[in-house]
């Protein structure tokens, strides 16, 4: 894969990041940072051109020649559009136009999205809540039982999201944010909160999860680790990068669950700074827990497809 193709994929990912109609300097800066971390020395120019509208889908699609580059471009754009957990109509229109321009069969990608939607719903934060086995807490004993049940649920969900990082499908991690949103919604319900999708998404965003640039980097690093060889110097190898991703995802999901529990337990009165401090503290706890559950996460992912792994969500 050539440097021009890599830059083209980054430019298309940039267009995907603004296809929801939102465009700001902060998002542009995050995309630039992600592109630079992938090995591009001067990504500002191509990203600025994409942001300005000077680069169009047909123009960029014409620069991609190999089937692998076209597939990676569409996969990356899909991941970026899914950065908030689902695709809205304007993002869907963008992806449809991109697929047409690339003359690409999107059935494999559509299958991945369908698997995720079946597991957590089109709007995952509003999906039906499974029973957590938490009793109505009226005494110290039932309070302790409720807390233990929730702790186990958060740990299970953190391991599940980490296992998604270990699956061979490079789009499997599209299921991570929907599961995290669903977890937050469940915890809010446990505390008697009636939440809509925006409230849940805003809370998750407070911790820096689900940013388009973050998703872009994760998907492209995963793919380039296997196909780009030494072109992007300094990248982790494919398997090492995925293993590292599992640890990071476990820690973020674990911290998110426990920070959300504290937030809702205190009536949603914590400030953004307080929330971030909680998230940092619980993430540090998760780092110490991960070695003890790493084998369980690997076993959860071993031999599984995305669909079969996501079936565990409904248990």
Number of domains: 1
Query: What coarse outline follows from CA principal-axis ratios?
Result: globular
What is the count of helical runs? 14
Largest sheet: none
Order of helices and strands: HHHHHHHHHHHHHH
Give the proportion of residues in helices. Answer: 55-70%
Radius of gyration: 20 Å
Chain-averaged pLDDT: 78
Give me the count of strands.
0
| Model regions low in confidence, pLDDT < 50 over at least 5 residues | 124-144, 226-240
Termini separation comes to 42 Å
Q: Which band does the percent of strand residues land in?
A: under 5%
Helix/strand-derived category reads mainly alpha
Descriptive keywords:
globular; 0% strand; 315 residues
How would you characterize this protein structure?
The protein is an all-alpha fold. It has one domain. It is built from 14 helices and no strands. The chain is globular. The N and C termini lie far apart (42 Å). 45% of the residues are buried. About 11% of the residues have low confidence.
């Amino acid at each position: 894969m050539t440097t021009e193709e890599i830059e083209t994929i980054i430019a298309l990912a940039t267009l995907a990041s603004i296809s929801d109609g939102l465009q700001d300097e902060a998002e542009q800066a995050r995309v630039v940072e992600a592109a630079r971390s992938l090995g591009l020395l001067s990504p500002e120019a191509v990203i600025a051109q994409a942001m300005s509208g000077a680069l169009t889908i047909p123009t960029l699609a014409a620069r991609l020649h190999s089937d692998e580059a076209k597939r990676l471009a569409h996969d990356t754009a899909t991941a970026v559009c899914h950065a908030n957990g689902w695709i809205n109509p304007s993002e869907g229109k963008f992806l449809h136009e991109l697929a047409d321009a690339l003359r690409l069969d999107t059935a494999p990608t559509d299958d991945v999205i369908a698997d995720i939607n079946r597991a957590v719903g089109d709007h995952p934060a509003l999906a039906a809540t499974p029973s957590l086995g938490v009793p109505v807490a009226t005494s110290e004993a039932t309070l302790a039982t409720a807390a233990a049940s929730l702790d186990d649920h958060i740990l299970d969900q953190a391991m599940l999201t980490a296992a998604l990082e270990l699956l061979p499908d490079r789009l499997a991690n599209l299921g991570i944010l929907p599961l995290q949103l669903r977890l937050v919604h469940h915890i809010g319900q446990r505390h008697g909160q009636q939440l809509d999708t925006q409230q849940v998404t805003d809370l998750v965003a407070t911790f820096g999860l689900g940013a388009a640039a973050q998703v872009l980097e994760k998907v492209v690093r995963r793919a380039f680790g296997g196909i780009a060889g030494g072109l992007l110097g300094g990248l982790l190898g494919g398997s090492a990068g995925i293993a590292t991703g599992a640890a990071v995802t476990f820690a973020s999901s674990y911290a998110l669950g426990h920070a959300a529990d504290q937030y809702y337990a205190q009536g949603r009165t914590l400030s953004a700074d307080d929330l971030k401090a909680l998230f940092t503290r619980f993430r540090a706890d998760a780092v110490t827990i991960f070695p003890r559950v790493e084998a369980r996460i690997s076993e959860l992912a071993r031999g599984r497809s995305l669909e079969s792994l996501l079936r565990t969500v409904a248990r």
